[in-house]
Amino acid sequence: MLQEIANRDIQDAMRKRIRGLVTDPEKQGKPLLGPLQGFRSLRVYRERYRILYRVDRTEVVVFIVALGIRKEGDRQDIYALAQKLLRSGLLGPL
Question: Range of 39's domain?
Fold first, then answer.
C-alpha cells in the first residue's frame, strides 16, 4: 500500500505515524461511524492523507487496513476505497 504513494515525504510521514501506533492506538485517530464502524482514522501529512486501522484488543495487534488521500466525493477517496474493501470481505470480520 505505502509503495503506491509516490511522494517520499508522505511515505515517511505515514511510516512515522504507523510506528506511533505502538503506543495507545485506541487513543489516537478517531473512531469511524457507519459502514466503517470498528475502524479508526488517523490524519497524516497536512491532514489530507489518512491511515485507516483496526485494533484487536485480545492480542494487542493493530491492523493497518488502508492508506490514502481524503478526496471527498471522489472514487479514489480513502473512505470510499475502504468501504469497497469491507463489502468485498477483504478487510475481514470486525
Answer: 2-88
Please write the tens of the pLDDT for every residue from 10-66: 889 989 999 999 888 989 999 999 999 999 999 998 778 899 999 887 877 888 878
Q: Which long-range contacts link 88-93 to residues 24+ away (Cβ below 8 Å)? A: 91/54, 91/65
Query: How many structural domains compose the chain?
Result: 1
Q: In a 10 Å sphere around its CB, with 0-12 CB exposed, 13-18 middle and 19+ buried, how is residue 70 labelled?
A: middle
Domain-located, residue 94: no
Confidence of residue 4 (pLDDT cuts 50, 70, 90): confident
Strands 30-31 and 40-44: antiparallel
By the 8 A CB rule, do 93 and 85 touch? Answer: no
Q: How far, CA to CA in Å, does 73 sit from each of 35, 55, 57, 65, 79? A: 16, 27, 33, 20, 10
